[in-house]
Amino acid sequence: MCGRYASFTDAQSLADDLALAEVAEDARLLGPRWNVAPTDDVRIVVEKPRRERLDDGRTVAGEITRSLQRARWGLVPSWAKDPGIGSRMINARSETLLDKPAFARPLAVRRCLVPADGYYEWRRLEAPPGTRKVPKQPYWIHPADDGVAAFAGLYEFWRDPGRSDDDPDRWLVSATIVTTAAAGGLERIHDRMPVTLPPATWDVWLDPAVGAEEAATLLTTAAPAMSTRPVRSRVGNVRHDDASLLETDAEPLDPDLVLL
Q: Which domains does the chain have, with CATH numbers?
């Protein structure tokens, strides 16, 4: 799974790297994060028609525009009774997207990229003799070229029935990160990893005219090379959110470090 990641590259750099035409103001205002946790507000990249207002006051759909938007991490299906379900839907398994009602429709019409500088994963170690507590070694996993990773994501809209039609907060935008079986040496740390899409696939993945089955084929594309390093356990506490989380653990618990 992917339960923590970092996203600290500034919005303008993301605009350049991901060929964005627009950056929503609320997405721009999200500061750098080194410890993004489930239900946090995050940045996503989407392609959708620009809304244009005509002289007579009518609003129509304009050209397709790629933009950086703000969403809550943890997908809330449109049919959900309340948004709490989102905390259990931070990840979506690539192998079953077409079979799960909560993910099948977003896969068809609402795909996104989740920009990240890397993510954290915990490796389970052998318990010391005489104890049942299983120690874990956290790792920082990031693109080998130090560029921005584009995780495959899905997003959805949920209408809050308790808010009026003129309430600007009546719609919740939420997102999930697609995961797949770990490979490239990362399976030594954990059996799952986020799907990191290479730049050659971004246009097709984001294109709202591309159907679900065609989009799903992109999820098996070889991921960019990743690097790893052990980091300290303080990353496990959501209150810690600063660049020091990326520093190498000088005294790692793992006796057989996974260094890629």
A: 4-119+148-223 (3.90.1680.10)
Residue 87 belongs to what H/E stretch? none
Reply yes or no on whether 2 is catalytic.
yes
Q: Give the whole-angstrom CA distance, residue 3 versus residue 74.
A: 10
Options 2, 47, 112, 156, the catalytic residue: 2
Residue 52 structure tokens = 């244009």
Judging by beta carbons within 10 Å of its beta carbon (0-12, 13-18, 19+), is residue 82 exposed, middle or buried?
Answer: exposed
In tens, the pLDDT along 26-56 reads: 999 999 999 999 999 999 999 998 766 666 6
Sheet strands (E) in the chain: 4-7, 22-23, 33-36, 41-53, 59-73, 91-93, 111-116, 118-124, 136-143, 149-159, 171-181, 192-194, 226-230
* pTM (2 d.p.): 0.94
Q: Which of 95, 121, 126, 214 is flagged as catalytic?
A: 121
Give the Cβ contact number of residue 73 at 10 Å.
26
